[in-house]
Structure formats: structure tokens, C-alpha cells
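Dear all,

This email documents one entry for the complex benchmark we are building for the journal club exercise. For each entry we list the sequence lines for every component of the assembly. Then comes the predicted three-dimensional structure of the complex as a C-alpha cell string, followed by one or two observations. Please use this as the template for your own entries, and keep the labels exactly as they appear.
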Amino acid sequence: MDAAAQVKSQLFEMEMYSDLFSKMQELCWRKCIAHSKEEELSVGEQSCTDRCVSKYLEAHLQVGEILKEQSQQPQQ
Amino acid sequence: MEAVQNLPPHQQAEFMVKLEQMQMKDSLVMYTNLVHRCFAPCVTSFRSKVLEKTEQSCVENCASRYIKLTQRVGLRFAEHQAMLQKRAEQAASAGTQA
């Protein structure tokens, strides 16, 4: 891969992470925090957030694996 | 990101400029999203053209919560990425030793 293509590829990767981050943020907000009315996050909300991030990233990796597998199998 | 460090300096600079632009765009988008996100649940009446005290504190709390959420998600995300990085390094060095 020449250098220009490498820069592009790195930028795409960064865009992907940025997109991942904002989707994860949105999801965890909705699932854990949205309904609250306080200024601070409660302990429960903090734990929920931590678990949400952990699960989301695990799902992200898992889907990546599935995509890789599917692309390697011959089409039927 | 190591690939970026291997690039010639002028292309590294180009990358950094693009990255900075992405980050600036992200923070602007976050700003407008945050306003939208907090306006919707907090402001429900239009008797007056200024925000009422309850609406003001609702918006303030909502924004504060969201920013704290963002910080926490960022922290956990960075930890996760670091863990993946470490795992990859360990796998690579195990591979070279085999």
C-alpha cells in the first residue's frame, strides 16, 4: 500500500472509531441515563455505563469476526 | 497508528491536519446534538419566550449528565483499546518466539 493510500486507510479507521464511539455513547445514554433528572451520575448509572461500554465493544468485535468468517466462506 | 509514524513527515502533517479537522467537526456535531437532546425532554411549554427556571435547571442537569457520560464512555473505551493493543503485542511477541 503506498503512503497516500495508507493515510486514507488510517483516516477511515479513525472515522470508524469516531462513529463507533458516538453510537455507543448514544446507546448507553438511552439505556442507562436518559430518564434521570439529576446533575450527577448515580452509582447505578455509572455501573450501567461501564457494563454497556464493555458489552458494546464485545459485540463490535464479535460482529467483526462474523463478517470476516462470512467473507472467507464460498458463496452458496 | 504506528503506520502513521512510518510515513514521511509531510504526509504525517497532512494526517494530523485531517485528524484535527475531524475532531473539530465531531465537537461541533456533539454541541448541536446535545442541545437537541436536552431541549426535547426539558422544554415542553411555550407560554413565554424565555426558559423558565425549571426548564433551565433541567437543561443544565441534562447537559451535565451527558458530558459526564461521554467522559466515562471515553475512559472505558480507551482502557479497552489499550487492552486490545496489549493483547496484540503479546500475541505478536509470542509468535516471534515460537
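Observations: Chain B has a mean pLDDT of 87. Residues 9 and 15 of chain B are 10 Å apart (CA to CA).
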